[in-house]
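Just curious: can you write a single protein's sequence together with how it folds?
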Amino acid sequence: MPVSNKLLLLAMSFLLVKHCIADFFLQTAFQHKNKGRYLHPGGLLHSLIHVVMTVPVFALLPPANWQRAAAILIVEYVIHYHVDWTKDQVGKRTGWTPQQNAFWRTLGIDQLVHGLTYVGILWALVTPGLAEAL
């Protein structure tokens, strides 16, 4: 059965709100300060929080099977972790500060990639025969 536009907008809204909560309300100094240290528990935990908070969207758009659900969560985890790690690396290597436009551009790109990840999640949830489509 086709998914309604309203349901897709609700799911996208949920993912954007969860992103805001996970990044700006639940993220601790331990997570934030250590996202640039590859495989540090702080960055790993931050990405895990994002993935756990994605699971409720499956109530709106149930995955075709548990394998697809697991694949979506694993891919989100890997993307989120590496986007955050990359942004931190760029910030440390360039020394850009909030007083510089480049800092805000980097933050904007970071947030854009996270948002596009959510578009991908929704696409994966509503596309039957996904493996065959690729």
